[in-house]
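Worked example 2:
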Amino acid sequence: MTENPLDGFKVEKSDLKYIGQGLQRPECILAEPDGTLWSADARGGVVCISEDGSQQVITQSYQNTFETSTDEASQFTEGTLPNGLAFAANGDILISNFGTDCLEVMSRQGDTRVLIDSIDGEPIGKVNFVLRDSKDRIWLTISTRIKNWMSAISPNIVDGYVALVDDKGIRIVADGFHFTNEIRLDEKEEWLYVVETCGRKVSRLKVGKDGSLSNREVYGPRDTGAFIDGIAFDAYGNLWGTHVMTDRIFAITPEGDLRILLDDSDPESEARLMKAFEEDKATPELMLACGGEIAPWFASVTFGGRDLKTVYIGSLRGDRIPCFRSPVAGLPMVHWN
């Protein structure tokens, strides 16, 4: 392969610019070729941010627990919590709602309906992320079947799974994950890459023509040392990702090497949390004590801009979107073309 464009690349705080204001839990961000951004928002819906910086909140008809709760921990576990986003083929927005535990579809005017809330006759669980592929199939991650996800931050709970929605309906195609989080397909859609947040690693599985998954293996380090949340490929083949709570942007090269590109962590609070986690004693208080200054609790990375070289950082506790320029373009998502 040619020289990796990330060789020698680091992001400093002075490199960052910020987009948006007054956002609430901008966990996942979708970018369009015209520069428009769509950000998940805890008011129950999304915020549309135009290239000129103007923004509009598009809400669903749900009570906003995030805004009214006085307990910070409950803000992340109750009410409507739009989390992962994807564009449907017609431009509507698919929403994996981490609060209502269902997959929803919302028009760009806010009209919303539930697509899926159960599987095999049981509640579907904590729906985290949604991804649409080139065959118009929908991939879902369910982090855990435990209602309060903070209680599932444990090295011993492995009840996460991946589900596929196609013309046959919904079915589980892989399970036994340590808190399933974001997923991505490679350029040829041959492999599905799965974040295991509490495994602190990325796994991948071979995608069959029928959507079946096999040949599960760890991709990159067996333990990156911190909780992973979001991932995204660049055009070279580097898999970018976020360390949530400990606030880093990293990349796993095609050779499997881990590179830290941006570090906004606090070593002391991180050490306390990771020690407690390894003893299966992680608490919301220890989690909430973590977080940097840029946008606490990095959650996702999204490539956008007209050349796909602007990287946007989603977060769970920030109120705006940091961004910086990348030396390599992102891998276009299925909606880009």
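The chain has a mean pLDDT of 94. DSSP finds four helices and 26 strands in the chain.
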